[in-house]
């Protein structure tokens, strides 16, 4: 079902109910861009990967969010699904909400256009959102405004008694006196209100100052903003306290309504967090990062903090890109690009469970032909997941999906473009892939691939992963050649060579050679095994929970994280020689 | 006339002709955003203003460009105009063109939507462009590619003789041998071509290496990219050198055509530069900066370099916002917001000249009702300009527009939000507004406006222009009070006070107290007075002219200019107390 701001608010209860009743939620996001600098190295650690992706994708926006709630119906032994395709766009024009700036990548815009994405609908009808920092600030200012107004009703005029009294020049006094002459005429008249002569803010301040002294209990003064943005003072009949209070309460109602509208789509994400349901995505790492950053709380600089935050917010996630690339699926699935995965899963030995659209709800079918619409991709992801899950039940007709079968796949995020496919293990210790066959080489800037191939030609085939124009990781196909290569190549003034482990400890300034440093306190508190029984404290207003990390007063754009150590990954823009297609393809698969 | 990439290329000759024949060109731009940080101070110098605007607006895009060419027809004594409204959007998907990232500001997107802007049309039909750096890089790579191909035709195979020969493992040798068995079978067959088994880039390299040795004069080998992005090698019949050359020439034609397409809208801006025509804009500073940055060359960090570049590119510009705010117009024109200016100029004492749409061309009329469409705003700007110009002719019916009357207005860019309205004088020395009545005050962070008002209450009214949360410029209404205030307030430990001039020289580390430093070499070469007779060297390919400044290998986003001295303007994000509307309004007008 298409959801824009014109039907979103009515649909909230229905969507929350679907979240509450479902067995799992599949998600997908469409973004305005993917990265600013394509600097992932095939031999990055999970921590390096996170830091790079966080930095390079930070200012892009989720503009479409697909949610598909799957509920297993034990009576009919079928899945019932309801799908929602949300258009998401930041609100502007509310003075309590920041005027968002965001990045677009023209290739992504082109891609979305070619898939039929409607940007006019997005910009006109997109649902707003606030992260918890923005929501807190809004709430704080709104409370202040409401308190001041309540106070004004009590004291008739502004409680601005702490302000000093400004003395007036003769000209100012003449002007203010003429204004109060007009006010007295108004009081004596039958009019309901009277607009005072237009004047600047300083003079308005003087008029308010005078009013506090002389107007009390006689009339009300208020500032109004005209259509042309001019501000004028208007004097009105004194209203009864009861009338003023009624007006105040009506305004509070409107303000709270507007506040809820601004929180918008974040309400849904918070409902998902509170539900603790299993979240399924395909290649979901970037979607998860953006979901947290945009709708919950800005992504922390620190990788361990991110893991803790992500695992707290979404205690059970499953990445179908990971699932389809390991265990028995690895050999049965040639390509796990989403469309190819679906095609494979529609054939033997897989059997798709029965999936129907929930009664009185909308959803996609396999014939919907809406590839790359977030809602449809979420649906397909859910279909693929349920088929793979089905397969795990010894290929038998599904009667009662067994969650324990998912244990090897839970909370493992697939990482694109890494050579040896390590994953991020949320709520667990990250795997450390063996990189004994990898060496670090630094060399003169004018070297080309051929120079490296030449250098290593005595040691068999190599895979070159450029770091910048004067260093690279070299992976040797013949692992037994590594020590010979290291000793043979150690005596040059032109280049220098070291093991991957040596390079890594040099970078991190540690003696500990472990490629991963994901040993945070969170893993001691909650391992992957007990992540299904997350503490119930999550059922609080997320704005007031752990997520309320006013982490780092980050500015909207280009913020810089403080380095937590001596880590200084070289990150130069790829040069021409690195962009030659052969290099990225140079692999033995 | 609406111009998108579907009619742009056919229209180029017509548009160039209109530029060539016109008397002046009025312009207007629609942008994806205006600024990232609103940090202009009311007492900035022109140099500070430029540096801030350049930095804060850099990554926003012009997405619509309005051009209106006005030609005075001496026979009919009327202006003939032709208007063009261009949709502009960066191209992606061409490997020689960068995948642009750009910023959007949600309030600007909202505003454009409310004016009926069609973003789907923009993204689908926008005309591409390249700045001179991008164009040069494209040209360079394309020339290389074409040279290599020409060489290949001469030598049948890649001239890759400098590459070392890679030795093969037994498995690789077996594979390569099997491929060459297939190739021999193909040569013996009747087929026109034969696809070789899919293999990775490394193996393809080995096959090419072998082909150079054994295949010469027997068959051709080429890499083809399939629809699914796979690369396969295809062996074909050896073509005659003549056939290959014909193919090569056809490819060059296609490549050059694609190159011209990518240069796109920049062609038009370059034609304007070469024409040296008078360019008229309303509040045109930002439009001019973006025009140079997006279509010509990245804006220099250095203000004097900018002035030189802008004056070289556009030797005659006229800002109707400036024109309408000075000399005799100042007292006749209340508001110079474009729509208000037009309304004023339609009434006495102004008389609008006769303006008609050029025969066989399209243009707007005053009834077009297309406010904030770039083409319409350009048209209105031209109408306003011609009416004010008309007025300068002693109010008589225009018979022959006199360019010399424009001298007081030429090359002066209006600067928004500065308190004493200095302007940027392109090709001339910037004015230095007297700021003897302004003092610089630094104070504790917890101070509020009231504390400052209190402090200065003995010295009359003040205008406060916050720099950050602990400093501000204070302008005194009573100039004779400045020296008394300075001596009275000089003995505090809580705050410190100095003259504007003292503060400025402290900032710039200069003894020279001049608020402006616009004394660059360009002004010696060409003053405003002789700017109407700019040197003809402009009539060169702009890509090869002065504009070809490979200034600073800037990265796409967030580049940092080297500071040219000790200048370090405090630029903190505005805090809450600065955002209260009264502060920006606190003025005596």
TrEMBL record, chains A, B:
Q: What is the lineage of its organism?
A: Eukaryota, Metazoa, Ecdysozoa, Arthropoda, Hexapoda
- Point to the regions of Low complexity compositional bias: 511-521
- Provide the primary localization: cytoplasm
Q: Does the keyword Transcription regulation apply?
A: no
Q: Which InterPro entries match?
A: CAF1_poly(A)_ribonucleases (IPR051181), Nucleotide-bd_a/b_plait_sf (IPR012677), PolyA-riboNase_RNA-binding (IPR014789), R3H_dom_sf (IPR036867), RBD_domain_sf (IPR035979), RNase_CAF1 (IPR006941), RNaseH-like_sf (IPR012337), RNaseH_sf (IPR036397)
Database matches in CDD domains: RRM_PARN (cd12428)
Give any Pfam family that matches: CAF1
- The segment(s) forming the Poly(A)-specific ribonuclease RNA-binding domain are 428-505
Q: Where is the composition biased (Polar residues)?
A: 565-589
Instruction: Give positions of region: Disordered.
Output: 508-589
Q: Which UniProt keywords apply?
A: Cytoplasm, Exonuclease, Hydrolase, Metal-binding, Nuclease, Nucleus, RNA-binding
Source domain of life: Eukaryota
An example Gene Ontology molecular-function term: metal ion binding
Which family, according to UniProt? Belongs to the CAF1 family.
Indicate what this protein is called per its UniProt record.
Answer: Poly(A)-specific ribonuclease PARN
Gene Ontology terms, cellular component aspect?
Answer: cytoplasm; nucleus
Q: Cellular location of this protein?
A: Cytoplasm; Nucleus
Q: From what organism does this protein derive?
A: Aquatica leii
- BP GO annotations: nuclear-transcribed mRNA poly(A) tail shortening; priRNA 3'-end processing; siRNA 3'-end processing
Question: Does the UniProt entry include the keyword Amino-acid biosynthesis?
Answer: no
